[in-house]
Design a protein that fits this description.
four-stranded antiparallel beta sheet, 47% helix
Length: 136
């Protein structure tokens, strides 16, 4: 199936450079892989259930969103155990380590992704082995 996309030129240039350096045969192949990774990442977030541990990493433009991010972090203090923050000019990179119900962590991820000034939000879940969690 053919499709078209509107992508900023600098993003497309970086994408092309990346797939070519990796030795893929075509941009189409690279786009298929990128779409598959997107599906896996976003599907996985929906399938995790029960108590879990997660690491969230997100970048954002500091001046545009810092007050709202602090409010969100306080709203989710029941699951955020620690955060780490790095400045790089006007942009920041932050990690939040969370522990609690998967659905509560998922809500936090979705709220972070809803901010225009937040570039990306990546999440990695560590779900305990069911036998260990059950105390067997």
């Amino acid at each position: 199936m053919r499709t078209s996309l509107n992508i900023p030129q600098e993003t497309l240039d970086a994408f092309d450079e990346t797939w070519q350096e990796e030795g893929l045969e075509s941009r189409s192949r690279a786009v298929r892989e990128a779409i598959q990774e997107y599906i896996e990442r976003h599907t996985d977030i929906e399938t995790v259930t029960g108590p879990t541990v997660a690491a969230l990493a997100f970048d954002y433009e500091h001046t545009l969103v810092i007050g709202e991010l602090h409010t969100i972090q306080h709203e989710y203090e029941d699951i955020i155990s620690t955060t780490q923050h790095v400045h790089h000019g006007e942009w920041c990179l932050e990690t939040a380590f969370c522990e609690g119900p998967a659905d509560r962590i998922r809500q936090l991820v979705y709220q972070l992704r809803d901010f225009d000034a937040v570039g990306r939000v990546n999440v990695m879940f560590l779900q305990p082995d069911p036998e260990v969690a059950a105390g067997e």
